[in-house]
Structures are given as C-alpha cells and as structure tokens.
Design a protein that fits this description.
The protein has 687 residues and is α/β, with parallel strands linked by helices. The chain has 25 helices and 20 strands. Bound molecules: acetamide.
Length: 687
C-alpha cells in the first residue's frame, strides 16, 4: 500500500486521538521516500551486540558496502568496541541481508528491496546486491534515538525506483575536479540512490582524459589537468562498488576549443585555437567533411570504450551554431554536392558517421537534444536540456523525442549550476503532464540527470552547489510522483544534508573555510549572519556576458560562501507571511529583525579590516536599514505605534534600494519577508 502524504497537523491530531506517544510525519527522515512504508509498533534496539549475516549469492561489493554502513552507524552511535561480524550465511545475525544473485549496475537493473524491522530482527531482502545497497541506505536513515539509546523503528518497507536513469552530470572541463571530489560525490550519489554518473570530460576549456593513441589531447589541451587511465579505472570501480555506472561524454562537433587546440587540423577554420577561459558558446567546431576527423574520433572512441564499460557513450552535440561551417567554402561545397540543406542536417551527417563508429564498438549513442534529427537510429538516447532559459517551452524536446520513438533523459529543470532554490527543481517531474504522451511513449522517459556545469565552481565549492539540492532531485527520480510536500521535503533535506558530511562531502564545511579566509580568521560568526540571507545571483545573471569571471578567477569570495537556498531567509519569509495572516510568531520575527537591524554596525569592523569584503558593504547596510523599517512595521501592526508621517516613502526607498543591491554578485533573499511586514503595516503594496 502506498501511503499518501498528509499534512503534519493532521497526523498530530490522529496520534493525539489514538493516544500514541509519537506524532512523527510518515516520511520520518527518509529521502528518497520509499514506495511503501508501513510503520509498526516496537523498536529494534541497536546495541554493540549487533551481528550482520549476509546470505545468498551477492557480489562481493556488498560485504564492503555493509562494512562501510556499519562504520557510519558506529560514527553516529559512538559504539567504541563494536565487534560487528559481517558473515556469509550467518543466519544468526540480528541484521539479516539476503540477496538472490550478484547484480550489475546497468540501466533497468533491479534495484528493489524490502526491509522488515521487528523488535528482534532486521531483515533486508533484495533480488541482488544493488537493491541491498539501496536498502542499507534506507536503513541508515531509519536510525533514531531516545533516552534509552539508538533504535530502528519497527517497519515494513517495499521499495523500487520509479525511473531507471537517475543521474548526476559533472562537468570537469571548465574547472577540473580531482578524483577525490569525484569519489566523495559518488558516495553521496549512492546515499541518495542515484545510479548514473555522467562524466562530461571534454569541452572548450579542457580535455581531461589521458589517451595514448591521441596524446596531444591531454598534453596540449588540459593545462596539465587530466585523469590518468589508472584514475579513470579507479573511479569506475569505485562507482560500481556503489551500484553506479559511469557514462563518459566527449562533446563534439561543437564545444571543440580543447580538441582543436591539440589538433587544429581537424577544425573548420584555419586559425590558431586556444582553450576557452570565459563562459559562453564558442565557434571552434570539428570539420565534418574532413575524413581525418573520423579517423581521430575512432581512435578516441576505441580507447575510451576500452576504459568505460558503459553501454552508452555521450557525444555531446549541443550548441553547435556552425559559424565556422558557414565561413568555410569547402564545407559549403560539400553540403551542396551532397544535398545537405543546412547546418542541422550537416550535424546529422556527422552524427550518423559517429553512430557507425560507436556501433562498431557495441555502444549506444546518447547526445544533447540538438542531435535529434531524421534518420538517427531509434536506440539513440536523447538528452533533453533546453527550456525557459533558451526561450523554449519546458520538456518540448522530451515530448518530441518520445513521440518519435527515442528514449529520453531530462535535464531541463535540473541545472543545479544556475543556483535556483531546491523547490524549483523538486517540482519538475521527468514525466510530462498526463495526456502529452501515450502509455507506450511514457515508457521511453528513462529518468533525469542533475547537471553541474563548472564555470563558477572549484573543488572547494562544487559540493555546495550539488548538495543538498540534488538529494531532492534524487527523490523526484526515485519516489512516487505524489511525493511533493515542500515543507516536508525541506525538513528531511536538512537531515540528509548534515548526514552527507559523514561521507566526506564538503558542502557545509566549505562555507566556513571561505569565511575564515575572508575575515582572516576574524569575526566569522557575524559575517555568517549576512551570508545566511544572501544568495548568488540566479540563472546566467551572476556572470554577465560570461566574462565577469574567468576560469582563473578566485572562487573564494562572498558569493561562494552563499547557498542557492538561503534557508534562514526563506524560513523568515514564510514566518513573516504566517505572522501577517495569523498574528502568530511575532516574537521570533522581532528577534530576527533586531539581529539584522544591528548587523551592519556589528559587521563594520570586519568589513573595514578586510578589503575583499567591501563589495558587500552597501548590501549589509541596506539589510540593516530594511530590518529597522520592518521593526517599525511590527510596532504599527501590533498597535504600539502610529504610522510615522514619512514612513511609506522612506520604507519604499529603503526596500527598493536593498533590492537593487548585488553585492559580490549576490542578493538579499529575505526581502520578500521584510516587504510583507512593511506592506501589512501600511496597508498597501509598495512598488
Ligand atoms: C548544455 O547545457 N549546453 C547541454
């Protein structure tokens, strides 16, 4: 039985009436929410006597995975001398894991599992070890504590993913990410039950794979920052040990600056090529009429498929504007002779050639949605990515591809680099609205991928741009479509976020590193108060024209300490709205406003002593001014004060001035709440 999410207050009432001691939301701390959860009476007490039995025929990876899970439990419980026995066919274990056969990370692999927790026994069953690993992550999320110690609540869970393709793409071209970063993100992916790591290994800013057959690529086009083949094999093994498969991307024929820096003879224009340093769409493009291009691409593919067992190979194919094709008379002549009408058709010709090479090596082709064209074989996977930012309706290419019979993966809506709040991603479902596709076409929607483009991130900050928001996206890919309660998601996300730290994720830690650097290890606490209510500018506005920053800019500044979801600010906005609607919560609102009203003064010595922070000085002052206006509003609303004579004009000016601030390429995220209070006091909307 699938449960429906019921608002927390309804549960509270039900439990109160039933006389139950506990009024917990059905979802507790589970993320992604399993398909079916049946809470029962009783608790399995976790003690140092726990024994673990692994039964059946699992892949060996399950022993190591279980060992790491026990270690995480140990880290949470503080059990110092835990002689946990993880034994094969250990039928006496109090935690019994039973799997029928070894699994292989792959599309459509069975990842289902069941968990049954009773007072004496935990039983985790799965058809293979992939499901068992997913179940172990759920088990970790079940751990609770009371005054008597740690326990797992009695429960029966049945679970399986909604979509078979649940990915995270990491762009390691624009900023190189060393393998330690990849490892820890694979750990986080496994914790969130993601199963596809899409490795974007080439782009205008660098080629990142050591290739022995075309060594010019990593030697001349990587600034010395590339993965050795040994490292790549290690990453693939690390991923497989966590039930994740790794798909490489070699982005062609556009995004070609790096390839052409190494191999200019393959370009469509006779020019000197160089690695890109800014953000943007660049013209360097492989020449599809040059046979040597296919010879080199075959060498690249042959060596890459030997490294990557993934049955899918991503060829990129995005954002090829074809300017260099237009300028090249030989290419124009080729098109005329071959009856190729436009650049899109020419790219179709190029893709068909590439498809043939991939087929020779037994690989399916995947590409960004621009590869969708007449004649592309139906097994090609279309990666849908464009939408509102490109002036197109959401999911247009997704629907178009599925209607044409192609399997599709959705990334539009999951561009986590753009720093939109979690809920914007969470509410995007890979499945189009009912009625847009037939049942048969719906089967072609494989799932989705969060995409982490790396123009504005470094190894220090990248985790904080991926997590915790990608955990909410992972829930969208795994859980039932009905799981959409935003407050409940935020509540659980807070738990998941700190739990990810036990895997070494740096998303929370990095902020502190940056704050210490900005203040020269000074008054971090006060600066944190400002950071907590500021968000980096969203979409493509943080980096105007792609040139405000280069790949060499410091990403250790104020904006880099700010999160996409300034929770304190957003929670305040909700509290202000709630106060205006119900009159409740005045004390908390006032207390917060008082802190902000004095923040600028408290922060001034830090701002004055650290020139790197001058970029947020006016924003800090604007926040304190706006908070003082809101404090007056609170007095007016409660009837303690009459509206001061010039209040409306002043408040309007102060709020608008605060809204105009883009200090350090960030903006104040608590202004909607401040405005709500001011408008409630004056009884009108202010522009
Ligand atoms: C893309 O964002 N250019 C796929």
């Amino acid at each position: 039985m699938k449960f429906a999410i019921v608002p927390t207050h309804v549960f509270a009432l039900v439990f109160l009436l039933a006389g139950a001691a506990m009024a917990q939301p059905q979802t507790r701390n589970l993320m992604p929410v399993p398909q079916s959860v049946d809470w029962q009476q009783g608790k399995f007490r976790l003690t140092q006597d726990l024994t673990v039995g692994i039964n059946g025929l699992p892949h060996d990876r399950l022993y190591a995975y279980t060992g790491r899970v026990v270690q995480r439990l140990s880290g949470r419980t503080g059990f110092l001398h835990w002689p946990v026995q993880i034994g094969h066919q250990h039928t006496q274990g109090s935690l019994q894991i039973t799997v029928e056969q070894p699994g292989t990370p792959a599309l459509y692999a069975d990842e289902s599992y069941t968990i049954s927790v009773s007072e004496n026994q935990i039983s985790l069953r799965a058809p293979n070890d992939l499901g068992a690993m997913r179940g172990l992550e759920t088990l970790l999320q079940l751990l609770e504590a009371d005054e008597e110690g740690y326990y797992f609540p009695a429960v029966a869970i049945q679970d399986a993913p909604r979509f078979p393709w649940r990915g995270l793409m990491l762009d390691v071209s624009r900023h190189f990410l060393p393998i330690e970063v990849i490892y820890r993100n694979l750990d986080a992916m496994a914790a969130m039950k993601l199963n596809v790591f899409h490795w974007h290994l080439s782009d205008d800013h660098g080629w990142r794979v050591e290739l022995r057959s075309v060594p010019e690529l990593h030697r001349l086009a990587s600034d010395g920052q590339y993965y050795t083949q040994e490292q790549i094999r290690s990453v693939i093994a690390y991923a497989e040990a966590r039930g994740i498969w790794v798909m490489p991307e070699c982005d062609v024929p556009g995004h070609g600056s790096a390839i052409l820096t190494a191999l200019p003879q393959l370009g469509s224009k006779d020019m000197e090529y160089d690695l890109a340093r800014n953000a943007g769409i660049f013209d360097p493009t492989l020449d599809p009429t040059n046979e040597e291009v296919y010879v080199v691409l075959e060498k690249i593919i042959a060596e890459m498929v030997a490294l990557f067992p993934s049955p899918y190979f991503h060829i990129g194919g995005d954002e090829n504007e074809g300017h260099h094709w237009d300028e090249n008379p030989n290419i124009q002549e080729f098109m005329q002779v071959n009856g190729i009408e436009d650049n899109h058709e020419l790219q179709g010709y190029f893709n068909a050639r590439l498809h043939k090479i991939l087929a020779k090596y037994d690989r399916e082709m995947m590409g960004w949605e621009e590869i969708l064209a007449e004649g592309i074989p139906e097994s090609t996977v279309i990666h849908s990515w464009r939408g509102a930012n490109e002036g197109l309706p959401a999911k247009q290419s997704l629907v178009q591809a599925a209607k044409a019979g192609y399997p599709v993966v959705l990334s539009n809506g999951y561009y986590i680099d753009l720093m939109y709040p979690t809920q914007d991603h969470y509410l995007v479902d890979p499945m189009p609205e009912k009625g847009r596709l037939t049942a048969e076409e719906e089967k072609l929607i494989l799932g989705g991928e969060a995409t982490m483009w790396s123009e504005l991130v470094t190894p220090l900050t990248v985790d904080s741009r991926i997590w915790p928001r990608t955990a909410a996206i992972a829930e969208r890919f795994w859980s039932d479509a009905s799981i959409t309660d935003l407050d409940d998601m935020q509540r659980r996300l807070k738990v998941v976020s700190y739990q990810l730290e036990e895997l070494g994720l740096q998303h929370l830690h990095a902020r502190e590193v940056i704050l210490r650097n900005l203040t020269r290890n000074g008054d971090v606490a006060t600066l944190r108060e400002l950071v907590e209510v500021c968000e980096p500018l969203q979409g493509y506005t943080r980096n105007p024209l792609g040139v405000y920053y280069t790949v060499h800019s410091p990403y250790t500044l104020f904006a880099d300490a700010c999160m996409a979801d300034a929770r304190l600010a957003r929670d305040f906005n909700a509290a202000a709205k709630d106060f205006v609607a119900t009159g409740k919560g005045a004390e908390a609102v006032i207390s917060q406003l008082e802190r902000w009203a004095t923040l600028h003064e408290r922060l001034s010595p830090t701002l004055a002593g650290n020139p790197v922070l001058l970029e947020v000085k006016e924003q800090s002052k604007a926040l304190s001014d706006a908070a003082r206006m809101a404090l007056i509003a609170m007095d007016v609303i409660s009837g303690q004060k009459a509206l001061p004579a010039d209040y409306v004009d002043q408040a309007e000016h102060v709020l608008n001035h605060a809204a105009e601030q883009e200090g350090g390429r960030t903006q104040l995220a608590n202004l909607p709440g401040l405005r709500t209070l001011v408008e409630a006091a004056v009884g009108e909307n202010l522009d």
